[in-house]
Amino acid sequence: MLFGIRIIWRGPNVNCVDSTGYTPLHHAALNGHKDVVEVLLRNDALTNVADCKGCYPLHLAAWKGDADIVKLLIHQGPSHTKVNEQNNDNETALHCAAQHGHTEVVKVLLEELTDPTMRNNKFETPLDLAALYGRLEVVKMLLNAHPNLLSCNTKKHTPLHLAARNGHKTVVHVLLDAGMDSNYQTEKGSALHEAALFGKTDVVQILLAAGIDVNIKDNRGLTALDIVRELPSQKSQHIAALIEGE
């Protein structure tokens, strides 16, 4: 099988593309075929060819969670893989790995000096995505490697806002313990606004216990209490009572 690949793909055809813009290297990286990746790289397969979505083989290997193939793509082959290359959504390979909780790939990419402060089209960093999807170990890894990420925020959101919105209690605890400012204000207010609006009672309690300022207002001039008072559900009324109790 591998001998056949050497014959068929040697030379220019090794970098041919299909209708999605995939080269053979894209397919091998996505499907976890390490041996095929090695053969392709030895036969001049390029790692810097993007598919129709702007993804390089490195993005696909990171998304898949294959640390061995990620290492091969970075260190072998005729072309130099750029670990900070972004796809059409401005996502790096680190975004892909962080979102899906692939800790081994995150470790490799951090060792290769991937920039964790880069933002995608939604202004999300890899830490934002890890917090949003509750990837606790990735959150810890990113904070340990780059504590400065705690203050790398925008007016769109913070990792704390995103974790609060989705009710990821442990991630919220880790971010607060690491020193993230619970009172940081975005367009949507504080993390308390997010937790209250989305009915995450446990997170509301955590934030209140951490001393979050209940008087912070969003860009409409509303506090978190104002928002939940407008909502009819029993959970919202319970959250309102918790906030009023502060």
From TrEMBL:
Q: Which SUPFAM superfamilies match?
A: Ankyrin repeat
Name the GO terms of the biological process aspect.
Answer: ephrin receptor signaling pathway
ANK repeats: which residues?
Answer: 20-52, 53-85, 89-121, 122-154, 155-187, 187-219
* One GO cellular component term: cytosol
The record's GO molecular-function terms, alphabetically, read:
ephrin receptor binding
The protein's UniProt keywords, in alphabetical order, are: ANK repeat, Repeat
- InterPro entries, A to Z: ANKS1/Caskin, Ankyrin_rpt, Ankyrin_rpt-contain_sf
Superkingdom, according to UniProt? Eukaryota
Recorded hits in Pfam families, A to Z, give:
Ank_2
Q: Which PANTHER family match?
A: ANKYRIN REPEAT AND SAM DOMAIN-CONTAINING PROTEIN 1A, ANKYRIN REPEAT AND STERILE ALPHA MOTIF DOMAIN-CONTAINING PROTEIN 1
Q: What is this protein identified as?
A: Uncharacterized protein
Which organism's genome codes for this protein? Limosa lapponica baueri
